[in-house]
Amino acid sequence: MAQQQRAIRTRRMILEAAAATFDELGYDGASTTEILSRSGLTRGALYHHFPSKEAIAAALVAAQDEALVIPTHTVKLQGVIDLTAEYAFRLQTDSVLRAGVRLTVEQTSFSQPKIAPYQGAANVIGSLLRGAQERGELLPGVRPQEVTEFIVGAFTGIQLLSQVYDNRRDLLHRVSAMWRFLLPGIAVPGLVPHLDTDIERRCAVNARARQDAEAAPGATPEATPEPAAARPAGTGASEPVAAASRRREPVKAD
Q1: Domains of the chain, with CATH numbers?
Q2: pTM given for the model
Q3: What CA–CA distance (Å, rounded) separates 114 from 105?
Q4: Do residues 65 and 120 touch, judged by C-beta distance below 8 A?
Q5: Residue 50 — φ and ψ, nearest 5°?
Q6: What region holds the HTH tetR-type domain (predicted)?
Q7: How many angstroms separate the CA atoms of 77 and 70, rounded?
Q8: Alpha-carbon torsion 19, 95, 70, 2, what sign?
Q9: CA-CA distance, 186 to 197, in Å (whole number)?
Q10: Each residue of 182-220: pLDDT tens digit?
């Protein structure tokens, strides 16, 4: 078990060093020698995990799937919002994820197919939206597949603009704005006011919970409260939302 943990740590050290190298020099300007220098590891340790620079880059691209933390909210639309919130927050704080995204969107000599991260995100978001449709959260005529493609494309463009304009410091604000504009066009009217699009606040709460958990091992992190719409009937604000959803017949899934 200890050896396995060391291997995991070594692999992470390589990916973090590679992420910093690719971020500064780009894929074409980076070398395994530079990655080794930044990691402080031996060449044997690097090649034990990755046979080439391209293999390291492929691992960084694949690591994007790890950032797709699937929420467990009863209200599926809130789950999609929180999924994008967590991904945006990690883009601000996780160098490995940032490197994977850069390798995916940039045109370089890195030749492996780059569609997988988009497909992975689309699969998760599409599943949540189909659940939202089954629960009557979506307006009649809204197609989960079309909304999925829009969200993936819009988020990709928003994070690129945020990177160019402000080094992603304003990314959470931009994603919040995306949802404020999008929700009235896809969600039943009774649900929209109860969906929490204050992504900056939600991410701050989650970050504090993670810090508390790290400071006190064994403690249970404080979960971000679900919006009123997700609470059981009889707790106040959720009742009109649940009623609004029940009044609409769910649209058949695509």
Answers
A1: 2-51 (1.10.10.60), 63-247 (1.10.357)
A2: 0.73
A3: 8
A4: yes
A5: -140, 125
A6: 8-68
A7: 12
A8: positive
A9: 14
A10: 999 999 999 999 999 998 887 777 777 767 776 766 554
